[in-house]
Specification:
Layout (H helix, E strand, L loop, with lengths): L2 E5 L2 E8 L2 E6 L4 E5 L3 H9 L4 H12 L3 H18 L13 H6 L6 E7 L2 E7 L2 H11 L12 E8 L2 E6 L2 E6 L4 H17 L6 E5 L1 E5 L4 E5 L6 H10 L3 E5 L2 E4 L4 E2 L6 E4 H8 L11 E4 L2 E6 L12 E11 L5 E5 L2 H10 L1 E3 L5 H8 L4 E7 L2 H13 L2
Parallel strand pairs: 6-7, 12-19, 19-22
Antiparallel strand pairs: 1-2, 2-3, 3-4, 5-6, 7-8, 8-9, 10-14, 10-21, 11-12, 11-13, 15-19, 16-18, 17-18, 20-22
Length: 387
Amino acid sequence: MPKEHSMQSIPYLRKKIGNSNLLWFENSNSYVQLEEPAWYVFNQFLKRCKPKTIAKAFENRYGTTHNESLTFVTEILTQIRKLNQSDTIENNFNNFSDRLNDYHFNPYSIHHYLLGTKQITFAFESRLFEYYIHPLISHLELVTESETSALLELFQYQGKIAFRLNGEVRGVWSADETHLAKGLIFMAMINLMHTKTDADWLMTVHASAITNKRKTILFSAPPGSGKTTMAALLQSRGFELISDDFVPIDRQSFSAYPFPIAMSVKQGSMELLIAHFPALEHKQLNHISSEKSVRYLAAEMDPVYSGSAYPVHEMVFIEYNDSVDFVFEKLAITDGIKLLLDQAWVVPNPGNSGILLDWITSISFFKLTYSNNEKGINAITELFSHE
């Protein structure tokens, strides 16, 4: 288990990985890796040494100039203080939750969807709110209504976006926080689909999860880096898609669970993928912004498989690069962890940080940089064959 500390009013956990120290800061639910000499500065700060004292000791220890030492120490301590601050972005819907619970609105639309074996009903107050969610799950829509397991509602209240589940408000956000709203709504849908609660999850990852029904590999990348394209190409070769873009990881089994939202195919990949998925050509073009348009490709998920999950042991970071034919390499664990944490949100439940720090060192990380699709697919297929 990682060691827990609470010196200098900094509650944190530490996991030693080679020459690096992976730290979790409780107050901000944030992770960072520190190596020497940053780790030395942090330790001196924990001993209640003043910044000037640390800078002087740093100067003697590392042979730097006074100004260099002071600048470095100041930068590290500024980062540490920021990591030790509580998250100031709070969902303060409790201030008016009673009013929100009883608030009535006239829906612009009401849709019924089938998530695995669970039917849900979703009421959207406006066309804009419908646009946030419906295109991603329209392929799950039911023509006729039967017994529903949950009512989800998305509406506006006093200039805010509000989300309600079975009559109970779950979140309120400003107009520029739609990504937070979507994340919480997706978590609610996943819980309903798999009969779970937030306490059952370790984290969610901005990734595509692909399985051969024996093992699961996560493919992660910043937007526009080829993650979805590779996932779709692998699907065309017979692999199963677990989820695209939003992958929930179970805190006990470390398994990725299915979430059948549609794949967002950007314009640059459409011609390639239409050859494998002809129906994509006739899908509506959705304008996300002035610079981004997508078509949604429905997840082809076996209904029998939709409740299954497989542990994750490997993660591949994808980068499509026109100037690189093909490079596939195993990453140092410290590099892989940094990339993973950049794309993950760890559910802030008690014990999750320690579980993550223990599990994360068992993952194998890889980097695929490519423009040759066939070589990329072959490398991933080979990785799946290693049990």
